[in-house]
Amino acid sequence: MICCRECLELLNDYVDGTLDEKIKESLEDHFNDCPPCISFLNTYKSTSKVCKETLSAEEIPEIVQVKLREFVQDTLKNAKEG
After folding, report:
1. What three-state secondary structure class fits 2?
2. Nearest to 7, CA basis, from 51, 37, 29
3. Which of 74, 69, 70 is nearest to 52 (CA)?
4. Residue 38 contacts residue 51 (beta carbons within 8 Å)
5. Distance (Å, rounded) from C-alpha 82 to C-alpha 77?
6. Each residue's pLDDT tens digit, 41-75
7. Rounded mean pLDDT of 9-24?
8. Whether 39 contacts 9, CB under 8 Å
9. Residue 4 and residue 12: Cα distance in Å, rounded?
């Protein structure tokens, strides 16, 4: 069974749909048994959607895009370590 830490490490690949089917099923089993992880997944999906919509709505300077990506990556890294 996948633990919460592994769940966080696999989250991006899960949302992108690039996980091996067996790992995907194990991750979904974990989500079914772990309300905090499913909540985090839903928040992650919502945040990703808002970011994509915002970035495609109008041209944002490259430096702002880079800083936003760094912020999201740092937030995920801190969540994995915490």
Report:
1. coil
2. 37
3. 69
4. no
5. 9
6. 999 888 888 877 777 766 778 898 899 989 988 88
7. 93
8. no
9. 14
Q: Is the dihedral angle over the CA atoms 13, 44, 76, 23 positive or is it negative?
A: negative
pTM above 0.70, yes or no: no
Tokens (6 digits) for 46: 């919502």
Which one-letter DSSP state was computed for residue 18? -
| Cβ-contact 30, 1 below 8 angstroms | yes
At 21, list the tokens: 């089917």
User: CB-based burial of residue 7 (10 Å sphere; 0-12 exposed, 13-18 middle, 19+ buried)?
Assistant: buried
Give the angle 10-11-15 at the CA atoms, nearest 5°: 120
Q: Which helix (H) or strand (E) holds 4?
A: helix 4-16
